[in-house]
Amino acid sequence: MSQTKHPVIGIGAVVFHDNAVLLVKRKNPPCANEWAIPGGHIHPGETLQQAAEREILEETGIKIKAGEPVFSFDLIERDSNKNLLFHYVIIDLAAQYIEGIPQADDDALDAAWINRSQAKTLNINVTTKRLLIDKYNFHF
Question: Which of 3, 121, 123, 127 is deepest in the core (most CB within 10 A)?
C-alpha cells in the first residue's frame, strides 16, 4: 500500500563555487548513502525559490539565491510486491552561492563542494550524474 495518496513535490538546488558543485551524502531513503543535489520538501505557501533557499541552508549551512528550474524528474520506488512506497516529483533549480561552509545537517550524512576529480571517487546518484553532465557539462 502506498505511503502517500499523491506524488510529493521535492526541491533541489544546483550550486557551484570555485569549479565545484555542492552535494550531500543522503542519510535516508530514497538514495541513502549516495551523493546527490541537496534539497527537500516544499512547505505550503513557499515558492520554489523560497523552499530551495531554506532547504539548502538547513541541510548544508550554505546560503544561496535560487533561480529558475533547470531539471525535473520522477522518483518512484516500489517494494518487492510492486506496491508503491513513494513517488516524488523533484524540481532542481539553478542557484548562486552567497556564503557559508558546507556542514551536514538535517537529513544529510555529509555535505561538501565536490570537484570533478573528487566526483570520480564518490558514489554519486545516477540522476545527479545525468543532471551535472547534461545540463552543466560537468564530466567526471
Answer: 127
**Cβ–Cβ < 8 Å for 27, 40:** no
Q: How many CA atoms lie within 13 A of 89 on its CB side?
A: 7
Q: Does the predicted model carry a pTM greater than 0.90? A: yes
Q: Could you list the pLDDT tens digit for every one of the 140 residues in the chain? A: 445 678 999 999 999 999 999 999 999 888 899 999 999 999 999 999 999 999 999 999 999 999 999 999 999 999 999 999 889 999 999 999 999 999 998 789 999 999 999 999 999 999 999 999 999 999 88
Domain boundaries, the chain: 8-136
The CATH superfamily label for domain 8-136 reads: Nucleoside Triphosphate Pyrophosphohydrolase (3.90.79.10)
Burial class (CB in 10 A: 0-12, 13-18, 19+), 43: exposed
